[in-house]
Specification:
The structure is a homodimer.
Chain A lengths: L1 E2 L7 H5 L9 E6 L18 E5 L7 H15 L4 E6 L1 H13 L11 E2 L8 E6 L13 E3 L4 E5 L7 E4 L9 H19 L6 H20 L5 H19 L5 H13 L3 H9 L7 H13 L14 H12 L2 H8 L3 H4 L2 H10 L1
Chain lengths: 346, 346
């Protein structure tokens, strides 16, 4: 990994030894950056290709499969995939890398340790801080029957470049929602049952950095971008030996059914989790108030019982998350009725 | 990297994919563990070889060259080197790995970015916490003309296994001296001029963990081993974008001339550095007192001026360390006379 302001300029040098004869490097870039100055800084060589990733929606398995298929048809194989963007773009890049070398559909690999072969070389360059997608061993995808990641030892990037300069133009709301993904990771990890000293020390550091930028600082400046990028990294590392918890498990149902994006979905759920994380939720609400953010409410009010059932099924399918949050007997604690009531309040 | 109590048991599975036909895995083990139960847990297969590393002295370039030469003569090449031990053993393992694939003597590569080719696969399993050798991009060696590391992008381990159980039998003094290597890293990194947010967040966490185990805790228990192992890792990560400082620069002279081991050497020097790190030295002295450790003194009292000159030359050769500690104009601040006086006080 490389960290530092301006480190994006090292990308050309970093990918050079990974180039294979005749095979392009594919730059998968968040469409937010189309026609921005960042384009001119992408180190294109030979038959390299830029793909602007449409991240209006969370990444779908069908989208991953389509990109991988097109690349195979056009080039046979490629030298690597460089993801430049927020969590969705990074997850897409990881998934496309894997699908260049694994048969079938990415939907076949949603779960834990199902991926069979390493992907092509992949590098991640986050332009938003908070998701931890830059370090995680998953790539969260919405598939035909679930929203679930391709969790595997082959999933993490070979290389990450953390350049806080790239996050400076993020819209304030988006920056907050994504930053809260990190904050919520920390609470879920530190309050979880899977915690060990590795996860704890990373989680505590990430939490402290989030508290600094979202509560202590009076204005947002370069220091905040620097620190939030480290928080995101540390929060992601914390999850490596731990798991997320209730907010993520519930928010996955929202994303699956309603297409609610991950960051804001987590915030909508966290806002209602006093019973599970009382101190964390109180602090979260302070952060919301101090940063003058509005968290949407009432998003489930017109849904049919059938649709509640869909969300409940998706959510209860996230067994490791529930077990981390509530212990081995989680099914006795989080009943369908309780989860129905919680969704009803969102 | 893998972290956790008992994770040493994963070593067999972890190295399996790295084995190459007919080429042994070489386990380089601290001689402290000869005839201990750890021996039976080393996952030997086929023509694998155990070498007990003599770490009575700090690793020498001649020792590295001799091990690499013997392995080449016996096997041609090897699948990899697994270092199991304290910082000296880990540094030896890294250096031997590099010298399996680089021509000449390891002394030719003492410096920054001189190593030409990647080494063979290498994994590190620390049995003492504090040096950061498990993550550093150097391998500190005493050569014919200097004590200096092979600093390069090829130097870090491919894999590390952090199992705090392995540190539980360390002698109390040794544990303290080595732990202080981490504490001193943190002070030198956090008070240095090279600091960025990456180094800062790791350094702060490592510092906090050291303070907890050496000042807050009343007895040494498993939690201390767990936390000190994370502190060592985080302290090493902190140095990745920073540098050590005055204590290390001065202590290298002691090691070169007198063979003083790194951990205790740093403590001897730190004990006299009030002028450079006033708060850090005060806290260091509290740790020494609380842990009932004696720091030797008067070790330079019978040395000739010629020998002082040797130490001064070795120390002033560590330019990046001095620049980190004192800024670009360090040569005006740390004159030969001042350094002579400091050595005289040790």
């Amino acid at each position: 990994m490389v960290y530092g302001r301006g480190s994006f300029n090292q990308l050309d040098e970093i990918v050079a030894p990974q180039r294979k004869d005749g095979m392009p490097m594919v730059f998968l870039i968040d469409h937010f950056f189309e026609d921005t100055p960042l384009f001119n800084r992408v180190p294109l060589r030979n038959n390299d290709k830029i793909i602007y990733a449409d991240v209006s929606y969370e990444p779908k398995t069908t989208y991953v499969d389509a990109i991988a298929q097109e690349l195979k048809e056009e080039f046979g194989s490629i030298s690597g995939v460089i993801g430049i963007g927020g969590g969705s773009t990074l997850d897409l890049a990881k998934a496309v890398s894997l699908m260049m070398n694994n048969p079938g559909s990415s939907a076949d690999y949603q779960g834990w340790d199902l991926v069979k072969f390493p992907g092509v070389y992949k590098a991640g360059v986050p332009t938003l801080s908070g998701t931890g997608a830059e370090v995680s061993r998953t790539t969260v995808l919405t598939g035909p029957s679930r929203k679930l990641g391709m969790n595997s030892d082959f999933t993490p990037f070979n290389q990450i470049i953390l350049d806080p300069e790239l996050t400076s133009n993020a819209p304030v709301n988006q920056r907050f929602y994504t930053g809260m993904d990190c904050y919520i990771h920390c609470i879920e990890s530190l309050e979880g049952t899977f915690l060990n000293e590795f996860s704890k020390s990373y989680g505590e550091k990430a939490l402290e950095l989030c508290q600094y930028v979202f509560l202590q600082k009076e204005i947002w400046d370069e220091e905040c971008d620097d620190k939030l990028m480290m928080a995101s990294f540390a929060g992601g590392m914390s999850i490596a030996y731990s798991q997320v918890g209730v907010a993520h498990a519930v928010s996955y149902g929202l994303s699956y059914l309603l297409g609610v994006k991950h960051g804001i979905g987590n915030c909508i759920v966290m806002n209602q989790l006093e019973d599970f994380y009382p101190a964390g939720v109180a602090e979260f609400k302070k952060m919301v108030a101090k940063n003058k953010i509005e968290i949407p409410g009432g998003i489930c009010k017109d849904l049919s019982e059938e649709k509640f059932d869909v969300m409940i099924n998706v959510s209860l399918g996230m067994k490791p998350l529930w077990e981390n949050a509530l212990g081995k007997d989680w099914e006795k604690i989080m009943t369908r009725e309780k989860l129905r009531a919680l969704y009803g309040r969102l």
